[in-house]
Design goal:
Distance between the termini: 42 Å
Largest sheet: 6 strands, mixed
CATH topology of one domain: 2-enoyl-CoA Hydratase, Chain A, domain 1
CATH architecture of one domain: Alpha-Beta Complex
Number of helices: 10
Radius of gyration: 17 Å
Helix content: 40-55%
Strand order of the largest sheet: 1-2-3-4-6-9
Shape: globular
């Protein structure tokens, strides 16, 4: 069975939903399915906006480092698929319930807009795992929140709740938990009311050079993730996370 479903309604809004509850961890196969969905919708004249959402408690908790095989083991394969999301022509609104953590934050920021609630949590927790950030967060996070805030979030790995996320421009609309998907659909429907050719043209102009910057960032991120994955600090970071304790890093 597919972990991604696609539906298209009469308002020209497509809903692309991830089905890996409750945490919706990703791997290269899941991101490939999302890329396939986006490309198919780009070619469908009836689709003018996309709502990206997830079944379950969390939008996406990133990579499952407790699994036998983690996306951390295959960054280049993962990021080849991730690049396809940034290449898509149809605007995307992400409905972010619960946590968007690590690569899950990267997935959320790959969208054009984000709808969240005060209870939503955003975290670039890579440094707390002894790891380098990924999913082009080196491009998307500074663009949204500014260089200094990006530095803060990437180096501390701290969690940001919905209210602060809104102030930092990590999300665009803040509503109650039960209204996240409804509000995301409403925003997508608003986008779909504009002339579709004009929307794609304007979006492409505003994103001039983005794909090239993302591709370069993904290559750099994959290299650094490969390098740091071999360190004792990374092993300690993952172990501490699984054991729910503070990590004890030694710089080795």
């Amino acid at each position: 069975m597919s972990d991604v479903t696609v539906t298209l309604d009469d308002e020209h809004v497509a809903t692309v939903e991830i089905h890996r509850p409750p945490a919706n961890y990703f791997d290269a196969a899941l991101i490939r399915e999302l890329g396939d969905a986006y490309e198919a919708l780009d070619a469908d004249s009836g689709a003018r906006a996309i709502v990206l959402c997830s079944e379950g408690k969390h939008f996406c908790a990133g990579a499952n480092f407790g699994a036998a095989s983690s996306p951390a083991d295959e960054p280049r394969a993962l990021y080849r698929e991730a690049l396809r999301l940034f290449a898509a022509a149809t605007p995307v609104v992400a409905a972010v319930q619960g946590a968007a953590v690590g690569g899950g934050l990267g997935l959320a920021l790959s969208a054009d807009f984000r709808v969240a609630s005060p209870g939503s949590r955003f975290s670039a927790n890579f440094a707390r795992l002894g790891f380098h950030h990924g999913f082009a967060l080196g491009v998307t996070l500074p663009a949204l929140a500014g260089q200094q805030t990006a530095l803060d979030l990437l180096l501390t790995g701290r969690r940001v709740a919905g209210e602060e996320a809104r102030s930092l421009r990590l999300c665009d609309r803040l509503v109650d938990d039960a209204e996240i998907r409804t509000e995301a659909h409403a925003l997508a429907a608003e986008l779909a009311q504009s002339a579709p050719l004009a929307v794609r043209s304007i979006r492409a102009t505003l994103r001039t050079g983005l794909l090239e910057r993302v591709e370069a960032a993904l290559e750099r991120e994959a290299f650094e993730q490969d390098r740091l994955r071999a360190t004792a600090d990374f092993r300690e970071g993952v172990t501490a996370s699984l054991e729910r304790r503070a990590p004890r890093f030694h710089g080795s």
